[in-house]
Amino acid sequence: MTSNRPYLIRAVNEWLLDNRCTPHLLVNAEAPGVDVPRQYIQDGKIVLNIGPSAVEGLRVSNDEVTFLARFSGVSQLVSLPIGAVLAIYAKENGRGMMFSEDEDGGPEPGGPDDRPTRPALKVVK
Q1: For residue 60, is it left (φ>0), alpha (ψ between -120 and 50) or beta?
Q2: Is 19 left (phi over 0), alpha (psi -120 to 50) or beta?
Q3: 5-98 maps to CATH 2.30.30.220
Q4: Tell me: the pLDDT tens digits for 115-125?
């Protein structure tokens, strides 16, 4: 199966906007294919405001997130693979969803780990 991450990002983003919250993405800035302003990276991660007043042309496809944003007054195209998104959450209260860094849609079918596993949920505060 394909990764559920892009679907969840789109859904949580819509939920946050419906509740008048400001959606932010926590991104692994060191992942391959991440194109963000390097001067804003801290500890290998970057937080990006993706609210409608902060970005233009937000697109969350099944493979990547892209948008235009201003950094220190300069417009810049931001592009990042879906797998680099570690969390989407509300700036106001921290509610949202975190993702595992190693999740890519699960193991290959027929592999040694192709056996039923118990679901695991994490509480995010």
Answers
A1: beta
A2: alpha
A3: yes
A4: 455 666 667 76
What's the per-residue H, E or C state across 4-58?
CHHHHHHHHHHHHHHCCCCEEEEEECCCCCCECCHHHCECCEEEEECCCCCEEEE
Kindly list the domain boundaries of the chain, sorted by start residue: 5-98
Q: What is the mean pLDDT of the chain?
A: 88
pTM, two decimal places: 0.79
**Pairwise CA distance, residues 18 & 27, whole Å:** 23
Locate tokens 């959450």: which residue? 89
Q: Tell me the per-residue pLDDT of 40-65, one tens digit each, with 9 for 90 and over.
A: 999 999 999 999 999 999 999 999 99
Interior angle at CA 14, CA 9 and CA 16, nearest 5: 95
Q: How far apart are CA 89 and CA 16, in angstroms?
A: 8
Q: Chain-centre distance of CA 53, in angstroms?
A: 18
How many CA atoms lie within 13 Å of 35's alpha carbon, on the beta-carbon side? 11
Per-residue pLDDT, 106: 40
